[in-house]
Recover the amino acids of this structure.
């Protein structure tokens, strides 16, 4: 008689918190609020991207396509749809005092079967150099591991995107390798440095 498998790991699906509840009670860090993106954020997203075009388009391939306020509105609407489908959890980073939108941080490409996703982020030009992204991403990693039940969070940055690599280092990610010519940004192929953090990693 065939023997039973020794042990089958318990299936533990990701928990996707309700977007509407989190818009009322956002993820909080000492200086920031992380609020799920929805259609009303479209105009502020447009102003942030359009006011920081040069700073963003060196590293983010979608920036030239985000070329009208309507494009930002469509992106904001798609964020809400992706959230509700459990595909991606993207947050507006807001200043706790002024409530102004400073950038975006998100957990993209959620794979429920493997409890994994990819961290992505950007800040508007006038918000860099204050530790805000490290603070926002730390808050999001904590949220992802404890509330969503993620096991593995990947992150990639171009090998010459030094500010982003420093963020990743401060977040305690482990280096896993180089993906050659992983992304075409403008007319430039970018090599990616690949990193990950596991829920079980020591900090
Ligand atoms: C990547 C990006 C978010 C990094 O922004 P950043 O402001 O350098 O990162 P942080 O917000 O964590 O700030 C850290 C810097 O603030 C400084 N800082 C100043 N005051 C600080 C404070 N009170 N607390 C912590 N850090 C502080 C730190 O020393 C650090 O500077 P350093 O990296 O030169 O040592 C930003 O450059 C960006 O949006 N780039 C374009 C888009 C992009 O590349 N996205 C990532 C694609 S992989």
């Amino acid at each position: 008689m065939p023997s039973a498998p020794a042990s089958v790991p318990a299936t533990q699906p990701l928990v996707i918190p309700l977007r509407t509840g989190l818009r009322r009670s956002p993820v909080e860090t000492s200086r920031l609020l992380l609020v799920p993106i929805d259609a009303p954020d479209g105009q502020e997203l447009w102003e942030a991207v359009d006011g920081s075009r040069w700073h963003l388009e060196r590293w983010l391939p979608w920036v030239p396509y985000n070329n009208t306020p309507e494009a930002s509105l469509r992106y904001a609407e798609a964020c809400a749809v992706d959230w509700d489908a459990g595909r991606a959890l993207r947050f507006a980073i807001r200043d706790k005092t002024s409530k102004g939108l400073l950038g975006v941080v998100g957990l993209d490409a959620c794979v429920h079967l493997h409890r994994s996703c990819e961290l992505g982020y950007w800040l508007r030009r006038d918000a860099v150099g204050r530790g805000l992204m490290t603070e926002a991403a730390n808050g999001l990693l904590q949220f992802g591991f404890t509330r969503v039940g993620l096991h593995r969070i990947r992150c990639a940055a171009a090998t010459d995107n030094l500010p982003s690599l420093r963020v990743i280092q401060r977040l305690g990610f482990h280096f896993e390798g180089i993906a050659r010519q992983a992304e075409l940004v403008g007319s430039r192929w970018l090599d990616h440095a690949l990193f990950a953090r596991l829920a079980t990693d020591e900090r």
About this structure: Residues 55-56, 59-60, 121-123, 128-134, 157, 161, 163-164, 166-167 surround coenzyme A (CB under 6 Å). The helical segments are 19-24, 42-50, 53-57, 69-84, 132-148, 162-170.
